[in-house]
Design goal:
alpha+beta; Zf-an1 domain; Ubiquitin-like (UB roll); 3 domains; four-stranded mixed beta sheet; two-stranded antiparallel sheet; zinc; AN1-like_Znf
């Protein structure tokens, strides 16, 4: 009796099973039984090609240029001063010890001197009023601090001993007039701005070459605080300090603007 035609043999070695309706792989064009129809089960070379093609994409990331940092960012963050890329934690000039940071110091020093000259130009009765006003501001900040601790938003993982509470007045045109927040005393002013912008859902283009940048301004002098200074340093200042429990202003300024005008209008 002639052998019945039961189809073709499976091409997998040691299988050789016959199938009446064999499966033809669209990757390697081989003929296989039902058990070995999947590409992985019969060692199809097309599977290896696909894996090799996907591997560079899954490993794609941007390494931090700071020596000793092994973090990688999903997107490239380029410092506008030194043109090197860094992770999110080291994107500020002060945090990656930017080699171009010194070029900005003369302007910052001139700005600080201008503020000191403005404050020091008033003598006699005006000076006494200023000292009395500073004492009043410190007292008002202590009273406000108790309320801020109950309402402020911030990173709950920060230790209480490192928290600085501020009433942050938001840019003109914002949905909210102000928002109570707390920050780490060790943070730079640049990091404080980024964190505050995130809490208040504000547009923050400080890492881009745009016309206006978000700056943190002193409520008394209107000075735009230098981005590389620490928050703790401004709390400890003798002349025109920030107060834990005091007020600050977030506003968009042009690159050349170092002072905010009409400071009193934010309190109206």
């Amino acid at each position: 009796m002639a052998e019945l035609d039961l189809g073709q043999h499976c091409q997998v070695e040691h299988c050789r099973q016959r199938d009446f309706l064999p499966f033809v792989c669209d990757g390697c064009s081989g003929i296989f039984c039902l058990e070995h129809r999947r590409r992985e089960s019969h060692g199809c070379p097309e599977v290896t090609v696909v894996k090799e093609r996907l591997q560079p994409e899954t490993q794609a990331s941007c390494a931090c240029s700071l020596e000793g940092c092994a973090e990688k960012a999903p997107v490239q963050v380029v410092c506008p001063a030194c043109q090197r890329s860094f992770c999110l934690r080291h994107r500020h000039q002060s945090e990656h010890r930017c080699e171009k940071l010194e070029t900005a110091q003369p302007r910052m020093a001139a700005t600080r001197k201008l503020v000191q000259d403005i404050i020091g130009s008033k003598t006699g009765q005006t000076a006494r009023k200023r000292r009395k006003g500073a004492q009043s501001s410190a007292t008002a900040a202590k009273v406000a601090l108790m309320k801020l601790k109950l309402q402020a938003h911030g990173d709950p993982s920060l230790p209480q001993t490192e928290r600085i509470y501020l009433q942050v007045f938001l840019p003109k045109g914002s949905k909210e007039k102000s928002k109570p927040m707390f920050f780490c005393s060790q943070w730079s002013i640049g990091k404080v701005i980024d964190f505050a912008a995130s809490l208040a859902s504000l547009r923050n283009d400080n890492n881009r070459f745009t016309a206006k940048k978000l700056r943190l301004c002193h409520m008394t002098s209107g000075e735009a605080l230098p981005l590389d200074h620490s928050l703790e340093a401004w709390i400890a200042k003798e002349d025109c300090p920030l107060y834990n429990g005091g007020n600050v202003i977030l506003e968009y300024l042009n690159e050349e603007e170092q002072f905010l005008k009409n400071v009193d209008s934010y309190l109206e």
